């Protein structure tokens, strides 16, 4: 059975544990890239990462952009929304559909 993980700053992700998701707190990118690879090798189908952490491990995240699993999805953290998550979803939809059906631009 596939699992769901959430990586990011502790204050941003602990609420996800109440939903039954596995949480992996990181304040820095020092070990986060290694953990992302480990989670991808295990049975995690979806890995949510806060936008601020994702900006620090962009090269690691790019490894999984073309793969079916895991789906790496950026989410805003307590520090705010950078817009990277929305841009990534928009880019994925454009690749899948061939046009921008979300924002019509």
Sequence-ordered SSE layout with sheet pairings:
Elements: E1 3-8, H1 10-17, E2 22-25, H2 32-41, E3 44-50, H3 51-54, H4 58-62, E4 71-75, H5 84-97
Parallel strand pairs: 1-2, 1-3, 3-4
Structure commentary:
The chain is α/β, with parallel strands linked by helices and 105 residues long. The chain has a single domain, classed as ATPase, V1 complex, subunit F (Rossmann fold), CATH 3.40.50.10580. 39% of the residues lie in helices and 21% in strands. It contains five helices and four strands. The chain has a four-stranded parallel sheet with strand order 2-1-3-4, with helices on both faces. The protein is globular, with a radius of gyration of 14 Å.
- Which stretches of 5+ consecutive residues score pLDDT under 50? none
- Encode the helix/strand succession as letters: EHEHEHHEH
Structural class, please?
alpha/beta
Q: How much beta, percentage-wise?
A: 15-25%
Oligomer: single chain
**Helical residue percent band:** 25-40%
Under CATH at level 1, the class stands as Alpha Beta
Q: What is the domain tally?
A: 1
Mean pLDDT: 85
User: Distance between termini?
Assistant: 39 Å
Count of extended strands: 4
Question: Main sheet, how many strands, which sense, barrel?
Answer: 4 strands, parallel
CATH architectural type:
3-Layer(aba) Sandwich
Shape: globular
**Biggest sheet strand line-up:** 2-1-3-4
How many whole angstroms does the radius of gyration measure? 14 Å
């Amino acid at each position: 059975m596939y699992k769901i993980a959430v990586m990011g700053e502790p204050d941003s992700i602990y609420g996800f544990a109440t939903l039954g998701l596995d949480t992996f707190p990181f304040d820095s990118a020092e070990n986060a890239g290694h953990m992302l690879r480990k989670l991808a090798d295990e049975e995690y189908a979806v890995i949510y990462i806060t936008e601020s952490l994702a900006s620090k491990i962009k090269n690691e995240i790019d490894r999984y952009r073309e793969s079916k699993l895991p789906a790496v999805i950026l989410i805003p953290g307590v520090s705010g929304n950078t817009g990277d998550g929305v841009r990534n979803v928009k880019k994925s939809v454009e690749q899948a559909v061939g046009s921008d059906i979300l924002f019509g631009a």
